[in-house]
């Protein structure tokens, strides 16, 4: 068991299990969101846009040290019950999901925080004010997305290149195309094939999200992944600590679709430039 190698965002460490699946320490709210999506047929169209859900387990830090990797693998393979288990005091709940970089030689990842609104209605007053300020001063408000982190493999230098959240939050509306452009440029050319893949996925995501009125994703991300050495790629929604499934229509808008629209526009531009 080790800490996942290819994280580009996030605070807690995601574990890589012997089965190659990932285990993310999650809050009760995030577990609840995943369970709702998993247990309700209405969310069938949305499920392919989330990392595959292999269930949950609860463990304390000392449990994790104690459990030998082989046993842990067996425990996880037996997981079939997707209901949430009551979390005991010192335990952390882990969500077991597919590793989206699996089978990639040099995975390139970009974590984009989606939406114009970055606060949850359950946030306290000070937190809310702080988050609103951050949104308005970055690309979140004008564009509906903000870069959290990226790493891409540069074929010219033979090394990874990275951008961090501080860089992402410093970008202006005029610079909002930079994350996608940098991410898709492999040092030799722009990966238009991958841009096409993301464009098709985002169009499909747009039509799926339009099916729902109650969904709100505050501070949630879109994770863009491709392999520098093949045409393998993935696009998924991740990070649901502040996501909700049952908000009345028209209330507490997140501006998620606005962000998706803008990403679609940028991808189209990148693709058309190469024609
Ligand atoms: N299913 C996954 N496969 C591969 N990498 C992932 C997966 N889920 C998350 N990650 C990586 O971990 C990072 C943090 O994940 P996230 O769910 O946003 O955690 P946090 O709640 O700590 O922000 C992402 O930016 C991404 O790099
Ligand atoms: Mg995150």
Automatic annotation (TrEMBL):
SUPFAM superfamilies the record matches: SAICAR synthase-like
Top-level division of the source organism's lineage: Eukaryota
A Pfam family matched in the record: IPK
Keywords: Kinase, Transferase
Top-level enzyme category: transferase
GO MF annotation: an example: kinase activity
EC number: 2.7.-.-
InterPro entries (UniProt xref): IPK (IPR005522), IPK_sf (IPR038286)
Family that this chain belongs to: Belongs to the inositol phosphokinase (IPK) family.
Protein name as catalogued: Kinase
Organism: Anaeramoeba flamelloides
């Amino acid at each position: 068991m080790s800490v996942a190698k290819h994280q580009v965002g996030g605070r807690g460490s995601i574990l890589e299990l012997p089965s190659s699946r990932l285990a993310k320490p999650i809050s009760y709210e995030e577990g609840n969101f995943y369970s709702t999506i998993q247990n309700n047929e209405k969310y069938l169209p949305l499920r392919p846009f989330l990392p595959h859900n292999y269930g949950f387990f609860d463990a304390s830090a000392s449990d994790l040290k104690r459990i030998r990797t082989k046993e842990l693998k067996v425990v996880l393979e037996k997981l079939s019950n997707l209901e949430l288990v009551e979390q005991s005091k010192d335990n952390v709940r882990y969500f077991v999901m597919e590793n989206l970089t699996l089978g990639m030689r040099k995975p390139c990842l970009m974590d984009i925080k989606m939406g114009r609104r970055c606060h949850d209605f359950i946030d306290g007053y000070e937190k809310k004010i702080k988050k609103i300020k951050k949104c308005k001063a970055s690309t979140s408000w004008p564009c509906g997305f903000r870069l959290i982190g990226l790493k891409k493999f540069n074929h010219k230098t033979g090394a990874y290149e990275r951008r961090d959240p501080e860089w992402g939050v410093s970008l202006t509306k005029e610079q909002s195309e930079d994350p996608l452009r940098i991410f898709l440029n492999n040092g030799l050319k722009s990966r238009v094939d991958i841009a096409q893949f993301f464009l098709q996925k985002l169009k499909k995501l747009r039509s799926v999200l339009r099916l729902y009125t109650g969904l709100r994703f505050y501070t949630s991300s879109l994770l863009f992944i491709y392999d520098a050495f093949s045409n393998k790629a993935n696009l998924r929604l991740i990070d649901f600590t502040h996501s909700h499934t049952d908000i009345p229509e028209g209330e507490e808008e997140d501006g998620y679709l606005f962000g998706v629209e803008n990403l679609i526009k940028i991808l189209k531009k990148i693709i058309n430039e190469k024609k």
